[in-house]
Amino acid sequence: MSDGIWGYQPTAGHTAGTDLIGYKVEATDGTIGKVDKHSEEVGSAHLVVDTGVWIFGKHVMLPAGTVRTVDSAERKIHVGLTKEQIKNSPEFDKDRHVGDREYHDKLGGYYGGHRPL
């Protein structure tokens, strides 16, 4: 079920309860990293992606609404965003921003303006 940018789209193929940790995350123009954490919380579903060396070992938070498809067989998640859109997103600190309503609103506004491709 979809809850705007913070819910999985019905067509994404996400099954509630699936452990997505370790899945590769693919932008429209290449791999961005692997899922480090994820949440299925209603109104706040998201992925935390470890970008590894791509953006100097940082993590990014992606709202579930940016997910186009979840491929359980391949253990891949495809998001409808470019690497540049993800790289330019509001800076994420996994120790401060998980559960931070102000950051959540800022990120939702950013990705809400970048409708998934």
TrEMBL record:
What InterPro entries does the entry give? Bac_photo_RC_H_C (IPR014747), PRC_barrel-like_sf (IPR011033)
Protein name, as recorded: PRC-barrel domain containing protein
Organism field: Streptomyces koyangensis
